[in-house]
Amino acid sequence: MSPEPDGLLGGRLRLHQPPRGAHRAGTDAILLAQLLVPAAGDRLCDAGASTGAVGLGCAALVPGLKPTLIERDHDVAELARANAGLNGIEARVIEADLLASAAERRAAGLLPDSFDVVLTNPPFFDGGHRTSPNPGRATAHTFAGQDLDAWIRSCTAILRPGGRLGLIHRADALPACLNALKGRYGGIAIRPVHARAEAPAIRLLISATKGSRAALSLRPPLVLHDPDGSFTPEAAALHRGAPWPPA
């Protein structure tokens, strides 16, 4: 655990994290936490929550929101619980493997069609990719014997019909993301994220509605850094917890 909590979203969220070198929340979590704007009464789930940055970040921005955080690693789940208490957020932390069988998920308390919003930062790589030597970081970044389709299938199972899914992934994973969403979602909106204006996209922010037949849309890109390496005004505002500008 970090000796002092990190401040995210302009100080609205304080987060204890594992030591440096392990998987730690940063820009990806900040952008995902603000991708969808839930209502206070929505049943929101952070699937694969780690220390809770996304789900707790949503609750820090939407007073009254009571998120559910799913994390399979006991020690990391304990950090998520501590972070919820640190921020005065009423959150339910479920220790479960999202890729377990439907019966195992149900036994852990993950019931079908039970959430209005599911946000997820899935593992970015399958087992064939080279992974970090840090075991915690490798586990967070790599599927173990499964794939993105299985992950999205599990997210879909716990999301109610008409519910909204939000995810972030590598830009080169666009075909895999679209394949996993096909037949399950419509109203897919894709926003590319670029490190710099002249560089290719590095991330995709994707939102979709379960069971919808609405058309796909491509949103304006987000550029993170100016030529001098500082955040662009838009990226800096998002890191402070400001909402997305109108598309």
From TrEMBL:
Domain Methyltransferase small: start-end pairs: 31-130
Keyword hit for S-adenosyl-L-methionine: yes
Keyword Methyltransferase: yes
Domain of life: Bacteria
Any one GO BP annotation for this protein: methylation
Key words of the record: Methyltransferase, S-adenosyl-L-methionine, Transferase
Annotated PROSITE patterns: N6_MTASE
Classification via InterPro entries: DNA_methylase_N6_adenine_CS, SAM-dependent_MTases_sf, Small_mtfrase_dom, tRNA_Adenine-N(6)_MTase
Region (Disordered): 1-21
Xref: CDD domains: AdoMet_MTases
Molecular function as annotated in GO: N-methyltransferase activity; nucleic acid binding; S-adenosylmethionine-dependent methyltransferase activity
Protein name, as recorded: Methyltransferase
Source organism of this protein record: Methylobacterium tardum
Lineage: Bacteria, Pseudomonadati, Pseudomonadota, Alphaproteobacteria, Hyphomicrobiales
